[in-house]
Design goal:
Pfam families: Vitellogenin_N. With 253 residues, the protein is mainly alpha-helical. It has 15 helices and no strands.
């Protein structure tokens, strides 16, 4: 079906989207996203009205974009255009931002970070939103988007939020840092993770502390890190201590 769509004209795809039964539309939207031809993306742009369409159909479009194996810059541009300046339901906005992060990350993996303006626009949308966000749930979504993007230049921003934010923010930022490969887990990142785990500056949520411990254990841990993590288990609840002990055993294996 995708092969058929690749050779179809915009007007034919648009007509198909408008005429198929409602229960078939999610499949057709997903196929049009997978096709990523100029015609299919133009048809989706005309068809999808983010102020009117039912949420499940819009979510299907955004999920299909986010999980696209090799997205194009044009697909990211379409997502950005659909999210820009519109009154969106919280669920659609959240899914959209996380999708933007995923698309930016995948395009950068294709070495397109500095070559396409739309990738810069996508990253700036997330960073600007994070700077301007006043409500904690919005900050968390932007941090999730940064975690999806996995761009090394955002690590300092994630570290600031991981160490100094409120509970949900610190957990989201630390979880985002977990997604980076070992070459990007620097000595500075490890120092912050130690302070979080051992609660040097303030108390942290259990999930956040465990994420910090995982980052230390998954990225060439020093002997002293392992010793200190094991010593800390004596002061933890059984569930948290057991998790850490299993993690250390897995690292040893």
């Amino acid at each position: 079906f995708i092969q058929i769509l690749r050779s179809a004209k915009k007007r034919d795809i648009l007509q198909l989207l408008r005429r198929v039964p409602e229960e078939t539309r999610p499949f057709l939207v997903e196929a049009a996203v997978a096709t990523q031809s100029v015609a299919s993306l133009a048809a989706l742009s005309d068809f999808l009205d983010f102020s009117k369409e039912p949420k499940p159909l819009l979510e299907k479009f955004l999920y299909a974009a986010a999980f696209s194996a090799r997205p194009s810059g044009e697909l990211l541009r379409l997502v950005l255009d659909k999210l820009d300046g519109k009154q969106l339901s919280p669920e659609i906005w959240e899914t959209g931002m996380v999708a933007v992060g995923s698309l930016v990350g995948k395009l950068c993996q294709q070495q397109l970070c500095g070559l396409q303006q739309v990738v810069k626009d996508g990253m700036e949308t997330i960073l600007r939103g994070l700077r301007d966000a006043k409500e904690e749930p919005k900050v968390v979504i932007y941090l999730l988007a940064l975690g999806n993007a996995r761009l090394p230049e955002t690590i300092p921003t994630l570290l600031d939020h991981a160490e100094d934010g409120p509970a949900a923010v610190t957990t989201a930022a630390t979880s985002a840092l977990q997604r980076f490969p070992p070459p990007h887990i620097s000595s500075k990142v490890k120092r912050v993770m130690r302070r979080i785990f051992h609660q040097k500056r303030k108390s942290y949520d259990k999930t956040c502390r465990l994420a910090a411990a995982e980052i230390l254990l998954d990225n060439h841990p020093s002997a002293m890190d392992v010793i200190n993590l094991l010593l800390a288990t004596s002061e933890m609840d059984t569930e948290m201590a057991t998790f850490l002990l299993l993690k250390v055993q897995n690292s040893l294996r």
